Amino acid sequence: MPEALKRLINSIGYLPGIGENRATKLAFFLLNANQNFIETLSENILNIKGKIDFCNSCNGLTDSGKEVCNICKSTSRNHTTIAVVEEYLDMLTVEQSGGYKGIYHVLGGAISPINGVFISDLSFEKLFERIKDSDEDIELILATNPNIEGEATTNYIKEEVEKRGYKYKTKITRLSRGLSSGYIEYADNITLMNALKERKEI
Questions:
Q1: Residue 137 CB partners (closer than 8 Å, separation 6+)
Q2: What is the CATH number of domain 3-50?
Q3: Domain ranges of the chain
Q4: Confidence at residue 182, expressed as pLDDT on a 0 to 100 scale
Q5: pTM score of the predicted model
Q6: If 181 and its partner were Cys, which of 170, 186, 190, 201 is the partner (CB 3.0–4.6 Å)?
Q7: Which value, to the nearest 10 degrees, does the dihedral of the CA atoms of residues 168, 62, 87, 141 take?
């Protein structure tokens, strides 16, 4: 097998969920693809690092050069409701469910000391600043994953909000129990919409 093809298969194999057989099939697909497709794909891969920034408000992703993402600056969204998620992929999953019209806050992970993820590694302070800067009552929907790390993260946020105290009321809710997979990104739209609709105050 040519060295260039071997290297391509090895590179594709680093992608999550891609085994050796799948990587080989994808490599041969690319080998047989037309040149325009290959050039466009290569350009898009290179651009993913240089043309994407973090939103200064929600810590999600936005186009490079934009301080605030489209959701955060939208006047049609409910800015008194903030869904707190672990990862940007979770935010996309909630958004694609079609059942949520508030805004978001992306933590960048969940508290997990055993995996080397500590409170200081996540965007808690930015979240607390957003609550502090609010000029009206707000609701925090804690949409962390229903596992040990997600629960630890939820408990920390709840304790900090109660301890700090804010001028306006902060209602804290949690998604209802229905995400059997343990990860929001794998939830189907109906399950996620129901979990949002039936959320409980904690």
A1: 80, 168, 169, 170, 171
A2: 1.10.8.420
A3: 3-50, 67-201
A4: 61
A5: 0.84
A6: 186
A7: 30
Render pLDDT for 112-138 as a digit per residue (tens, 0 to 9).
Answer: 999 999 999 999 999 999 999 988 999
Half-sphere exposure of 114 (CA within 13 A, CB side): 3
What is 67-201's CATH topology? Dna Topoisomerase Vi A Subunit; Chain: A, domain 2 (3.40.1360)
| Residue 52 contacts residue 62 (beta carbons within 8 Å) | yes
